[in-house]
Specification:
Elements lengths: L1 E4 L5 H14 L11 H13 L4 E5 L5 E9 L9 E8 L8 H15 L4 E7 L3 H9 L3 E12 L2 E11 L14
Helix pairs in contact: 1-2
Length: about 180
């Protein structure tokens, strides 16, 4: 398995993985499938913001999964905190693609000097929760019944990984 930065020719595969997750998993809390144009806009926005998009591919060059991170929230006080996502093809689940993608995202977030990486996980997804725990993520909270899909309420587990011991950035004072 090889990891590399995603390129625009990867977008159809990324779209297929994303839309499969929308249709079959409680991991993406929407019923709306995306178009290739939607994924292109997402891709360009992530790249313009300086955020990574990586893919795992097999020996034939087929994309097995993708991962990325971006801002947790838009306010400046959250600028050192990123939220990540990892999705893999149905046939790749449980075979290590998600593991290597998560490991790479943690590595990149440290290199980019972010302070915290957050995973927001469907609480029933015990496999993903265990994977995150193996990489040092801690359960920071559970939000009961904050989403719904497939005719049921969904709980959200928030997991955090503190990436470094950096001091807090200096305070910024606004002119009034």
């Amino acid at each position: 398995m090889k990891l590399r930065h995603a390129t625009k020719p990867d977008l159809p595969a990324i779209l297929g993985i994303h839309n499969d997750a929308v249709k079959t998993l409680a991991a993406i809390w929407t019923d709306s499938l995306e178009t290739l144009e939607d994924r292109k806009n997402w891709f360009e926005s992530r790249i313009a913001g300086g955020y990574p998009i990586i893919v795992a591919e097999d020996d034939n060059g087929d994309v097995l999964g993708y991962g990325s991170y971006g801002p947790f929230r838009e306010k400046s006080g959250y600028s050192k905190t990123m939220e990540h996502s990892v999705y893999v093809t149905p046939q790749s689940r449980g075979k290590g693609a998600g593991t290597v993608l998560l490991a790479k995202l943690v590595e990149l977030a440290k290199q980019d000097q972010h302070h915290v990486l957050i995973g927001a996980i469907d609480s029933d997804n015990k496999g993903s929760i265990r994977l995150h725990e193996r990489y040092g993520f801690k359960v920071s909270g559970e939000l009961p019944q904050v989403g719904f899909k497939f005719g049921r309420w969904l709980d959200l587990t928030l997991m955090t990984l503190i990436l470094n011991n950096n001091a807090a950035p200096a305070a910024y004072v606004h002119d009034k």
